[in-house]
Amino acid sequence: MVENKSIYFKHKGKKITLDVETLGFFGKVFGLMFMPRENANALLFDFKKPTRVRIHSFFVFFPFVAVWLDDKNKIVQIKKVMPFISSIRCKKNFYKLIEIPFNTKYDGKIKLLYP
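and the corresponding C-alpha cells:
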C-alpha cells in the first residue's frame, strides 16, 4: 500500500520539506527499480526499530540520493547512489531512508542536499 505524505528535516540549517511515497512490504522490496526517471517519486522506507539494512541499485537506471534519518528526522548520512551498485550501507543505525531520484521534479531539493 502506497501513501503520500510530507516529511521535514534540516540540512545545513535549512528546513527541507519533501513529498514522499511511503512504502509497504512489496514497495520496500522494489523501491526505485524499473521506474522511468522522470516518473519516479521520492520514496520513504520507514522502519519500526533502528536498522542498518543494506540497499542496492540493481535495475535502477538513474542516480538517486539516499538520505538516512534517525527517529527524530535528523540526518544520519547522505549519499549519491549510482545505478547497478550491489551494496550500499549507512555507517550508523537509522529509522528512515528516503530515496530521491535525480529528475526535474526534485532538482531543487537535491541541490540543497548534494551540491
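(Above: one complete record from the training split.) The chain has a mean pLDDT of 94.
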